[in-house]
Amino acid sequence: MANFTAPPIWETQNESESIRLLAAQRQSYSDAKMIHFSQMTLTFTGGILVATSTFLFEAFRPVLAAALGCLLLGLSVVASSREKRKIEIAASIQEKFDTEVFQLNWSRAHKVSTPSASEVARAALRHRGGNLNNWYSLNQPVNRPLDVLICQRANLGWGIATHRAWAATVLCTGLAILGTATVFVSLSGMPATKALLGVYIPLLPAFKETGETWLSNSRSAALKEEADLEAAKIWNSSMQSRRAPTEQHCRKLQDKILESRMTNSLIPDWFNGMLRNREESVMKLGTSDYVNQAKKRGLA
């Protein structure tokens, strides 16, 4: 006998409480992005300016340049801890949205606190964004919890290519800065000690950001791909047996999604916007394909 989620996901996700959670989640991620990219801009700009001053001004002491580089490095470390906390808050809010919309139990695999109503309200009230309706594109009845699995797979597919593209962009930028600095050091005949103190140490925070951004975005993409492979196994098993998976399968998969969100790498809005339309189209087409597969096997 068919069992459907009631009320259906496409209705619950558009209720006022659900929209409030999405607004709070968006705002919390925006807060994390502001910290991350402000610090990243300061690190790159400050490092380049200090290194350039070493070339242009003879009186600019390399020791002072090195001290400024260390200061930028310290600011980077402090900002990272604050950014991490904001990401964890956003992940917990998004987990609350998913568990309520999917009607799943709260995660026991991760020590994640349920966000308080006041915490959600404060973040939601500050949100000034676009339309949050129809977060998941599923709009047809599918046997439960196959409908949950479809939404989870759509979520996992989102952003993998964007993470890899941003990782490559930042890595190329960092290597270009390193290469340019090395060329100027060689052409100027600058002594090794002065080059180390006046050029490379001030740029060290930028190189640190380059490496961390490349690693974290590559890891985010890998975690999502790993979880999506697990989701594909569950899906294929259901299609072959013509039986919906268990809710335990979906809860375990949700744990993997939560894990990826807790350490999710941030991508600037301007870069994300360039690939957003393509990602949305892929997600909608994927959801439509999953629904059609379920229909052919009598599961929708």
UniProtKB/TrEMBL annotation:
<keyword id="KW-1133">Transmembrane helix</keyword>
<feature type="transmembrane region" description="Helical">
    <location>
        <begin position="35"/>
        <end position="57"/>
    </location>
</feature>
<keyword id="KW-0472">Membrane</keyword>
<protein>
    <submittedName>
        <fullName>Uncharacterized protein</fullName>
    </submittedName>
</protein>
<feature type="transmembrane region" description="Helical">
    <location>
        <begin position="63"/>
        <end position="80"/>
    </location>
</feature>
<feature type="transmembrane region" description="Helical">
    <location>
        <begin position="165"/>
        <end position="187"/>
    </location>
</feature>
<keyword id="KW-0812">Transmembrane</keyword>
<dbReference type="Pfam" id="PF18159">
    <property type="entry name" value="S_4TM"/>
</dbReference>
<dbReference type="InterPro" id="IPR049920">
    <property type="entry name" value="IK1_05631-like"/>
</dbReference>
